[in-house]
Amino acid sequence: MALTLAASAALAGSLYDIPLKDIDGKPTSLKAYQGKVILLVNVASQCGYTRQYKPLEALYRKYKDRGFVVVGVPSNDFGGQEPGSPEEIKQFCSSKFDVTFPLMEKVRVKPGPDQHPLYAALTGKDAAFPGEVKWNFGKFLIGRDGKVLARFQSGDEPDSPQVIQAIEAALAAK
Q: Could you tell me which of 5, 21, 95, 171 has the fewest CB atoms within 10 Å of its CB?
């Protein structure tokens, strides 16, 4: 069924149409951020890259008034590094990193029958940047039109010149 949803979303041509749930379990989608530049990140609380929450929050605060949003998508796929409940994830993010950007439900990002349709669309053979997510804190930069503009790996720091340049270019584009 996940592949069917991903295929239908790909046919519809919009990542905005793929159903998600927020960290509180409420139905949503990326449509809530339509017209904004989105940095979508698969996050985890017990990873060596967890420290990236701090620069991700700083980016969000710096650029949110210009139409930018960071969307965190927890996943326990890599090393079991996000074992917590939604409440535990929210508490960790707010208490340790003062995260105010939106968080989604925990999902599967790795390929397979349980892969979330959003990640199937982002990483599948017809994606702008195909190939599976390798680890926590993989990043997809999505333009105001819903098209994926860039992809960054875990080791690409959110505040690195290449990531900031891509965000600023996306924000400048109309």
A: 95
Which two structure tokens, joined as six digits, stand for 157? 């720091």
Q: Residues with catalytic annotation?
A: 47
CATH code, domain carrying 133: 3.40.30.10
Angle at which helix 86-97 crosses helix 53-63, to 10 degrees, equals: 80
pTM score: 0.92
How far apart, in whole angstroms, are the C-alpha atoms of residue 85 and residue 101?
Answer: 18
Tokens found for residue 83:
């074992």
Distance CA 122, CA 18 (A): 11
Closest to 93 measured CA to CA, from 53, 38, 60, 55: 53
One-letter amino acid at 11 equals: L
pLDDT of 76-118, one tens digit each? 999 999 999 999 999 999 999 999 999 999 999 999 999 999 9
Distance CA 57, CA 26 (A): 22
Expressed as residue numbers, the domain containing 12 is 2-172
Burial 134-143 (b: 16+ CB within 10 A, else e): ebbbbbbbbb
Tokens representing 170?
Answer: 């996306």
Number of domains composing the chain? 1
- Rounded Cα–Cα distance for residues 46 and 49 (Å): 8
